[in-house]
Amino acid sequence: MAENQVTAAANQVTALDIMPEWQREEAFPQLTGAQIDRVAKFASRRSVKAGEVLVEQGSKEMPFILVLSGGLEVLRCSPQGAQQVVVHGPGNFFGDMTMMTSRPSIVTARMKEAGEVLLMDRKCLQEFVQNDAELGDIFIRAYIHRRINLLKAGWGNALLVGSIYSAGTVRIKEFLARIGYPCAYMDLEKDEGAEEFLTKMNVKASDIPVLFCGKKTVLRNPTNEEVAECLGINAGIDTVHLRDVVIVGAGPAGLSSAVYAASEGLEPLMVEMATPGGQAGSSSKIENYLGFPTGISGEHLTYRAMHQAEKFGVEMMITTKAVKLACVKRPYAVEVDGGREVTARAVVIATGAAYRKLPLTNISDFEGSGIYYWATPMEAQLCQGVPVIVVGGGNSAGQAAIFLAKKASHVHILIRAEGLESSMSRYLIRRIENNRERITVHPNTEVCGLEGPGKGNLERIRWRNNKTGAEETQEICHLFLMTGARPNTQWLDGCVAQDKQGFIKTGPALTPEDLAAAKWPLARAPYFLETSLPGVFAVGDVRSGNMKRIASAVGEGSVAISLIHQVLSE
Predict the structure, then answer these.
(1) pLDDT tens per residue across span 496-523
(2) H or E element in which residue 463 lies
(3) What is the dihedral of CA 193, 197, 198, 202, to 10 degrees?
(4) Given this chain, do its domains 158-231 and 243-354+493-569 carry the same CATH topology?
(5) At the fourth CATH level, which superfamily is domain 3-130?
């Protein structure tokens, strides 16, 4: 890296400058002498010179660094230039949540002043965090606060240039937000220097969204898979190594399985075709989940679960689709994109279900910019002061409507049934009824037309009352679809027994005919949550008879791991 790229101006705003006082102590604690001595027992001591780079941005080797003397400067470098994040002095330590994963560093760590440091590799750090409760909590708490701060400030090692009116831009921003990856952003509609910057970088404005990734890579309207590859999200994961369990799907059930598996000594690998969180991750506010009396957003719940999994050393392959389960022999093999296989002694299927789409020929023209399948703060910002439509009568639709009503001028809920009582929790119905000036429920109604020039320019929506046949057209350009789901089981290709709707049958739901057809080889009956294939479990929304609640999904994930212990001991 060139010298002018890693020099930080003294008057630049640092991480400390934009953080409230209480958060500074959490994010940048100073260890006591006794705490430093405990770290020293597991670390190597090293003298370092001024200007010496200990961690290069993009490096996969990212050690834990505790400063004993001197000063360690942390820098983030992007196409816009270098910026100082913070300077660590004696008793301070380097890193954020990337320390707990195999992903590349998003910052550079360089000695500003000569001194002495303690170094510990990633594997040793993970063991230390789990074994030393006090310092483990201090490290993880600091890492989380630092990552949150980087996200808020947009201090990543990548730069996204796009437009809020671009479906691709919204998609990439949502993807990065849901995996907790900080990224700088320039908007062609708001930032005066955006077009000039693109010209300087030899990129046309028509190419947006454009992601500047690393030192030289420029991606024009990339897929999420391309973004993940460029940022090294899945870097360093050994796909050849035999695992105790492969968990396919990173919704609440899958994340729960991963946390319990890793914390109980198993070696899990997670495979997720999109982003962690599943449908729950897109919920604007969950108020009936135990332990959160004021509610929690699906995004924040997912974020916490991911960090919990990373703390215990869970590896996650994101934007990696499972395409086939090789179920003829054990150990089982899950084939993923590119013909690769990951093998394991047991498998947890937590692939959930996908929202159903409206049967309209031009629906794809507006998806991601006008039509959405979740309601997060990002979408809510687009709906400020304008009317929106929410289609669906389940809890996710109710949560979305209440959340959007805080920003939108009015929310129309369209349902095909006579009312909400049979499909929505009573507390949500009461909230909707008490907010009639901002929310209107339209029973026996469905969307029958979308109007606009297309490609992200939805202008009008037409709906029809199925009892009277009356149609109505409104100038509404934001439509949220929460219309039920179908199980993501296509990749299983008949390996496990399913019900008529395609949901996976487990435990007591498996009939003697199911087991005979599957040639069940064991004297015992399948365990609860075990499929017609020994050692393969199904949890969460993909399972037949599941309660379709986050709490039940989390519970199933933990129960599956306790049963896997029994399977592995057989």
Answers:
(1) 999 998 999 999 999 999 999 999 999 9
(2) strand 460-465
(3) 150
(4) no
(5) Jelly Rolls (2.60.120.10)
d(C-alpha 161, C-alpha 447), whole Å? 34
Which of 2.40.50.100, 3.30.1240.10, 3.40.30.10, 3.40.640.10 is the CATH number of 158-231?
A: 3.40.30.10
Burial class (CB in 10 A: 0-12, 13-18, 19+), 68: middle
Q: Smallest Cα–Cα separation from 342: which of 249, 270, 265? A: 270
3-state helix, strand, coil split of the chain in percent (to 5) is 30, 25, 45
Mean pLDDT of the chain: 91
The token duo for 123 is: 């594997």
Q: How many CB atoms lie within 10 A of CB 552?
A: 17
Cα torsion at 107, 111, 112, 114 (round to 10°)? 170
Stated as kind and residue range, the H or E segment containing 182 is: none
The CATH superfamily assigned to 363-481 is FAD/NAD(P)-binding domain (3.50.50.60)
In 3D space, the residue among 372, 379, 365 whose CA is nearest the CA of residue 408 turns out to be 379
- Strand-pairing partners, residue 269, are 246, 315
Its pTM stands at 0.83
